[in-house]
Amino acid sequence: MDLAPQCSAKGCRAAAVWRLHWNNPKIHTPDRRKTWLACDQHRPTLGSFLDARRFLREVVPFASPDDATN
């Protein structure tokens, strides 16, 4: 059963609209990117969480399920 990609915010089941690429420099190599998906509502809070820790690298629109891998 394939599910549509959903927002990564806790308890949110909204469709993914954004990809937030991040990495933790203490444990990831500089080129490694992890991905959180976000709906429009949670994009600012998820982005702020990552940015406050200096983990956020890039925010781009989510286009397809193939974009969700990582």
UniProtKB/TrEMBL annotation:
It comes from the Bacteria. This is Acetone carboxylase. It comes from Actinoplanes derwentensis.
